[in-house]
Amino acid sequence: MSGADSWQRIWAPHRKQYLVSEAGNFTEATCPFCLAQDVDDETGLVVRRGEYSFVVMNKYPYASGHIMVCTNRHVSMYDELTEAETVEISNLTQEAMATLRHVSGCEGFNIGMNQGTVAGAGVAGHLHQHIVPRWANDSNFMPIVAGTRVMPELIQETRKLLSESWLAK
Length: 169
Description:
The chain is an alpha+beta fold. It is built from six helices and five strands.
């Protein structure tokens, strides 16, 4: 296909309800990352706690082992972090990568932050960095072709394995 409009589109109208009613509509009292800090690690899906930030499993993962590094403070933008928070997020990201490689044998990562609702942040008020492990020939095509994700184990089991195997600097 060529011409001015040669892009193929994949429509996902079911996402509209999430975008309208849920995405970004969290207060500090309803923020899942704030709430995860107030319960035990297993209930909150917390893998590792630091002084200024923590690592938590993603409840809606893109791949098995998809985790996030979150600030303890309910702050929305990277440039609002203190130096200590920035350093700890960086260190936890490095430790998470080493742990994921050790535990799952992943060969690469997608790492990133969506800041603000317009940038795609589902929890826009609380800064978090995604760490998604990747493997050659992984199931990346499954959500597009089959409308499903393939996860080899329950999130709770992955949380326990990563927590018990954490490789600290």
